[in-house]
Amino acid sequence: MRSGRVGTSLSGVTAVNAISKRNFKAHWVAPTLRELKRRKVIEEDRNGGQKIFHRSTFLEWNYDAEIFAFSNRLGEKFNDSSLRAALTHKSYIERETARLSDVGVESNLQFQDNEALAQKGGEIMSKFINGYLRAVFTQVPEELIRAMHDFLTSNSTLETVAKHIGLGDLMLCADFPCKTETYVKSFKAVVAALAESSGEEQARVFVQDLVVTQLYGQDVNELWNPVDPVGNLTAILKREGKAEPEFRLIRQSGSSSILAVYYVGVYSDKNFISEGAGESLEVAKEMAAREALKKLFHTEDSMRALPFGRQLKNIQSKIAQLENQPNVQLSEWI
Amino acid sequence: MSNSHLFLPSGFIRTPLQNGLGRYIPQLQRITLKFCKSHGGSRGVRDFIESDLMEFAKTNPGTVVYLKPRRHRSPCMVAEYLNGEREYLSCHEFSRDEVHKWLSYMCTRSGIPVMRFRKYQHTDYPTIQGVWNPFTHQAPEINVAEFPHEVLSKPIDHGPTATEQLIEIFKKTQMEDPAK
C-alpha cells in the first residue's frame, strides 16, 4: 500500500505554501477550522502520525513522463532500460510477484532489479571521488583522502543528494517512506546506469557535480586529524632533512584565570613554521603542530577554494589518472 | 523601518544541494494546472493551455506538466519542488498573460519558502587571513621588552605633535636664510 504514517513531520510534506489574495471570511470559519484541526491532531497522535501518500497514488501521475523529466533535469541521456532497472528494487519485484500469485495470476514479470547496478555504481563513484580528491589535494596524506571519501560516500550525504534530485517519487520499492539504504542504492545504481548509457566521462562529471560539491562548506580538518601531530611533524621534518621542531611560547595572556591563552610557535632551525593557540601549554603545542601539518598539506583555513564544475575542465585527465594512484601515507609523507 | 512587524520568516540566502556549483538543476519538479473546461473563470488558463503551454513544456523539459480538468471548480496551479515543498496559486479569472507570468515565476523558485533575506550574500568561509585577535600585528619584541619602552610604549602612527611641527617649520626657515 503506497501510504504510511509519519511520526515526525518530514520537510515540506505537510506545508502547502499559498500565494494568497485578500479574503473576508465569515465569523464562524476560524473557530470551525480551529476545532477541526484540534480533532485532527488528536486522531493523528492516536494513529501514530500523519497519513502520507506516495505521489504515484495521485490521479495526475505519469511514470514515463517523470522518467523523461528526470533525465532532462540532470541534463543527461539514459538508456531507458538501464534507468528503469536502476530505479527498481528487489523488494518491489518480490512484493509484486507475491501479490500476483495471491490473486492467482502467473507472473512473468520482466523486471530487472538494481542490485548489480548499485554495486557497480558504488565502486565507480568511489573511484571518481578518490580521483578528484587526489587531484585537488595533491599534498595530502592518504588517511585524510580516505576520511573525505568516507564523508562523501556516507549514507546521509548520498541520501540527501538522492532526495534532492527527485528519486523519492521515482523509485519502485516496497518500503514507504523509503529507507536511507533504498535511496543510496538507487543513487548508486543511477550512476552506474549513466556510465552504461553515456560513458564513463559523463558519469565522472555527474559524480563531481552532485556528490563532490557536498564537500563545499565542510572544513576538511574536522573530518580527520592526526593522532600524534607532534610526533608526525618531527618525523616529517627528519625525513625532509630539516632540523627538529622547536616549540617556543610566543604570546600568553591571563595565565592565572579561566580564560588563559597561550600561543606556541614551531620553529625549525630558527625558521618560523606555524603557531597555535590553546588554553594550556600542552594544548597550544598540539595545535601548533597541527597547524604546521596543515601548512605542509596545504589544508589551512586560508587554502585555495576547491574547484567545481567548469573549473575542472583542464584537470579531468589528471583526475582520471590519479583514480588508481593513492597518495602518500602519513607514515611516509615527505 | 524595522522588520519585526512582518510575519515573514527571515533567513540568509541559500540554495538546495549547492545547486549551480557543479551544474544547475531546475528545481521545479512538476506543475499541475487544474481548471474547468466550461466556466468563465478558467478562460485565461484554457487560452494559455491552447496557445503557450507546448512552448513552456518544450523549454522546460525537466518539469512534468499535468493538466487536471475539474468541473465547477475555480482554476489553480500547484507547483512541486525537488526539496518536497509545494506552492499553491489560485488562477481564478487570470488572463492568459498572467498565467504565463506566474508559471514562469514558479520556475524561478527553488521551493525554499518565501522569506526576507537578511543579507543578499552568504559565504561558508567568512575569513581568509584569520579573525583579528589582540595579538594580531603585535610586534614580537613586546615579549622581551622592558616597559616603559621608548618605541613600544608610545601609540603607533602618532604623527608629529603641533609643537614638533612648529619646531620643524622654524628650523626650515633658519636653513633657507643663508645670509645669516
UniProtKB/TrEMBL annotation, chain A:
Keyword flag Ribonucleoprotein: yes
Cellular location(s): Mitochondrion
Family: Belongs to the ribonuclease III family. Mitochondrion-specific ribosomal protein mL44 subfamily.
Source organism (scientific name): Daphnia lumholtzi
Keywords, in A-Z order: Mitochondrion, Ribonucleoprotein, Ribosomal protein, RNA-binding, Transit peptide
Record Gene3D superfamilies: 3.30.160.20, Ribonuclease III domain
GO biological process: mitochondrial translational elongation; RNA processing
Domain DRBM: 228-298
InterPro entries named in the record: dsRBD_dom (IPR014720), Ribosomal_mL44_DSRM_metazoa (IPR044444), RM44_endonuclase (IPR055189), RNase_III_dom (IPR000999), RNase_III_sf (IPR036389)
GO MF annotation terms: double-stranded RNA binding; ribonuclease III activity
Matching Pfam families: DSRM_MRPL44, RM44_endonuclase
Principal subcellular localisation of the protein: mitochondrion
Positions in coiled-coil regions: none
Gene: EOG090X0DYO
One Gene Ontology CC term in the entry: microprocessor complex
Name of the featured protein: Large ribosomal subunit protein mL44
Automatic annotation (TrEMBL), chain B:
Alphabetical UniProt keywords: Mitochondrion, Ribonucleoprotein, Ribosomal protein
Top-rank taxon: Eukaryota
Name of a matching Pfam family: L51_S25_CI-B8
UniProt key word Mitochondrion: yes
Domain Ribosomal protein/NADH dehydrogenase residue range list: 37-110
Keyword Ribonucleoprotein appears in the UniProt entry: yes
InterPro entries: Ribosomal_mL43 (IPR039927), Ribosomal_mL43/mS25/NADH_DH (IPR007741), Thioredoxin-like_sf (IPR036249)
GO molecular function: structural constituent of ribosome
GO BP annotations listed: mitochondrial translation
Gene name for this UniProt entry: EOG090X0FS9
SMART domains: L51_S25_CI-B8 (SM00916)
GO annotation, cellular component aspect: mitochondrial large ribosomal subunit
Location of this chain's protein in the cell: Mitochondrion
Protein family per UniProt: Belongs to the mitochondrion-specific ribosomal protein mL43 family.
Protein name from the UniProt record: Large ribosomal subunit protein mL43
